[in-house]
Amino acid sequence: MSRPAPDVAQLREIAVTVALAAGELISAGRPNQVEVAATKSSPTDVVTAMDTASEQLLRTELARLRPEDAFLGEEGGYEPGRSGLTWVVDPIDGTVNYLYGLRAYAVSVAVVLDEESPERPDPATWTVLAGAVVDPSQSETWTAARGLGATLTDSRGTRRLTTSAGPRLGQALVATGFGYDAGRRAEQAAVVARLLPRVRDLRRVGTASLDLCSVAAGRVDAYYERGLNPWDFAAGLLVATEAGAAVTDFDGGPAGSHGLLAAGSDLHEHLRKALGNDEA
User: Which of 62, 82, 177, 209 has its CA 20 to 30 A from that of 189?
Assistant: First the structure.
């Protein structure tokens, strides 16, 4: 028996509800001095106690609201479900910013359907149905539902996001990010050196979900990065896509850890060619 089609608007509301709760937790609970609780891929890839607390809140609330769904979190890993849907969450995207008190961190919550890889969703084959990115330091909430568009809610209210086709490459403000491995950073720095003379300027915020939302809002013209994890981009990718941006890997295929490039429809192809086969 086939399952009924998911109600993406309802899923979006759930994503917003739990992401706002986690955003309030990490904002109100941030001490003057944040301590590193652990490291992951390298000594610079850190985990704070609040990362763990935020993910536990998300896991608990989603289990209460959607007990049949699976869960994939940055800190706690994958927990299977029975509905065919998986919640993909980053409890604090931009942990290093959070650690240092920089106002560029977010909670990212998305729900995906993956009929080809039901055991553990794969960005290459999943469909993101709904998502929310909450930036508690700026009181901004970015949301999207598949086929229903993307919005930004802030002190001025809620408005629909529409991405332009983009400027010429030489006038483009481009965001990027760097991995934690020293060798990859050296490769990425070489790409920056080659790309910087060809664009207006580069920005490095350190929070992939907010970079993707910035493309959706026109705060930057494009964003690219290699080495992202699924929870880094699941919600932000849908916000950018529903706003009209093109989001692919560097070869024009599905975005993933091997590469993600988001830009307006015209700029996207020019920037993709500029990046070429570089190890961006």
Answer: 209
